[in-house]
Amino acid sequence: MKQQGLVMVFALLVLMSLTVLGVASVSSSLMQNKMAVSMQNQSLAFDAAEAAIAGVVFESEDEVLLANPNRVDPLSQARQGTVIDLQNQSLSCYNDADWTNRVITSNGLTEDTEHTAAGLFDNNPPISSWSRTAFVKERACLGSSNVIGGSNISCHVFIIKGCGKLQGAKYAVANTLTASVFAPASQ
After folding, report:
1. Residue 153: its pLDDT value, please?
2. Of 55, 54, 53, 73, nearest to 63 (Cα)?
3. Pair 158, 133: CB distance under 8 Å
4. Calpha distance 11→72 (Å, rounded)
5. What is the mean pLDDT of each run of 10 residues along the chain (187 residues)?
6. Which of 77, 172, 177, 180 has CA 20 to 30 A from 37's CA?
């Protein structure tokens, strides 16, 4: 009788340890799945942020838009707006008021268009994509462009922040590009 009770206790201990291992394994799998979904969502939002930066570059190089006096590209618009003070201000994805804003929708980029219409970058999953552009400063051009240093040309420096956000997410993913453009000196 004592041996049968001992075998039963031993079998219960083995069964309990297998149950604990099974629960731990399922819990670990669920956690890894959540991390993978989160990384995928961040990657999609980052792609949307990159598209927003590409949209600003596209508009700034769009010869049809640049030739149209009724339209303005985002860098020219930012140059006419508020100068960002990098010591006291940040170019936030959530500050609409002070900076030049563009939106990239699922319609893509089109020539002679200021991309300011509301809409989603992608519908499945719903992702928003937008940019903020700010003028930083005018300075003498550096590097190989020093050859033109004596001319009436300077470099205008801009910060472009691309932002992407999955609908329902508590955060936006952002990336930043600094652009320097040859322009007539303002002096």
Report:
1. 78
2. 73
3. yes
4. 78
5. 76 92 92 92 93 94 90 90 87 82 91 89 92 90 59 85 92 92 75
6. 177
C-beta separation of 153 from 101 below 8 A: no
> Would you mind telling me the total number of residues written for the chain in this entry?
187
Give the residue carrying structure tokens 């604990």. 20
Region for 133 from its dihedrals, namely left if φ exceeds 0, alpha if ψ lies in -120 to 50, beta otherwise: beta
Q: Write the pLDDT tens digit of every residue in 15-69.
A: 999 999 999 999 999 999 999 988 999 999 999 999 999 999 999 999 988 898 8
